[in-house]
Amino acid sequence: MPDYQDLIRIDRYGSPEELRLVQDPVPEPGPGELLVKVAAVGVNFIETYQRSGVYRVPLPFFPGSEASGTIAAVGEGVTGFAVGDLVATAEGSGTYAEFTLLDAQRAVKVPGGVDPVEAAAVPLQGFTAHYLINDSYKVKAGDTILTTAGAGGVGQLLTQMLKAKGATVITTTSSPEKAAIAAAAGADHVLRYDEVPGAVREITDGVGVAAVYDGVGASTFESSLLSLRPRGTMVLFGGASGQVPPFDLQRLNALGSLSITRPSLSAFLSSPAERAWRAGEVFGAVASGELKLSIGERFSLRHADDAHRALEGRGTTGKVLLVP
Prior knowledge:
alpha/beta; 2 domains; 15 strands; Rossmann fold; Quinone Oxidoreductase, Chain A, domain 1; 7-stranded mixed sheet; 6-stranded parallel sheet; 9 helices
């Protein structure tokens, strides 16, 4: 094991150039911790918010919460894990690195048959799709659901999981190329953003959809809201286009007794049992081939700035990974 490693540090808020490649000693795992040699890192919008200062974090800051890799050392008191095990997490810190320390309780084992690098594409987006359709709005067979960004990482997994539940899926994309990707993932109807909500009403014979899963935010919120049927549910789970401004809740009454929720993944990984349930179902579906992963672009650790530019430019499809 090397004495030093490359990792990314942010010293001040700003553009992607603020992602600096530095060297630090490889840490030792403390009690309850795992030292993981990183195979790949999932790049997510939250890191762009932290880097730019939309989400304020203490500086200097070491970004990254999602990763996969093999255990290099096991801390005191850890049970159920051994050196060499392939693990993944959506709840790490400082994962933009060659090695990362994980709280063992927040790591999950990756089953055989899952590629170690591709495993980094599963936790955040896979677990997010899982809680959205099982908890934020519990999807039933026969439901018609609208999702945004159907060619994205969450979007493609969400479509596959919704179809497995027996739902009809309407989704949105920004280009013909992305529309083809969304359709290949199983979407029944793929719309341009400017066709919503009118086309949604046409597809549903004027009724509207049971729920909207909206990860785009500011630019799609209004059209998503107007796509709902009476007593429908708006699930706002991200803000790729920016944060939704303050909203008059009385409008939910006027639009038909609508419900709205703004969830985050951490609240749905609240116990070891819940974490194990989500990981078992999602990784199990990946291992069996039922759930197909889509890896968009891979960047080296030293090009983390390019990964952020690609993500913020909303030109990516599937998951963006860093590979140390």
